[in-house]
Amino acid sequence: MGAYRADDDYDYLFKVVLIGDSGVGKSNLLSRFTKNEFSLESKSTIGVEFATRSIHVDDKIVKAQIWDTAGQERYRAITSAYYRGAVGALLVYDVTRHVTFENVERWLKELRDHTDANIVIMFVGNKADLRHLRAVSTDDAKAFAERENTFFMETSALESLNVDNAFTEVLTQIYHVVSRKTLEIGDDPAALPKGQTINVGGRDDVSSVKKAGCCSS
What we know:
With 217 residues, the chain is α/β, with parallel strands linked by helices. 29% of the residues lie in helices and 24% in strands. The chain has one domain (12-185): P-loop containing nucleotide triphosphate hydrolases (Rossmann fold), CATH 3.40.50.
């Protein structure tokens, strides 16, 4: 599990979104996971970017299409399209800026307002390498994650700490939701059409296959 795949040979395609305030390091988390790159001069994202990476989960190839957008309010008009079809999310704050932790409740509400109930959420405290500047305790973040029933990890895109683990855990949990829900209705998940996007949300049939792909309207 977690092995890198550069080609388009995959069994499942899952859309994952990155959310959180501007400057918390979302773009560097994305580039570290998909390209193993980090930029000290990275600028705030304008509009929407996305990148892909595939991993092995059990005997399947799971491909993530990860969307990254600006945290600034002036770009919030893209909200509905940005969240549409997402089955996983990384909600990111900066451990050195308490205000970014304070704002996660608003981000979480927005995420849940625009996605299905079964979305897998990883709460991420980024920039954990800046230990001398820490403003948010690990215990406070863990307590929030437990209260909101999300996963939690602290990461450092600079040091590549837990970046792979955070994304891989989200993708693995989504895969388990798909497998479990499909088995509940009596189908073999291995028989699902290869290379299609699976909807794991609660509002629609969790076993459905969206043949147009995760980016469609």
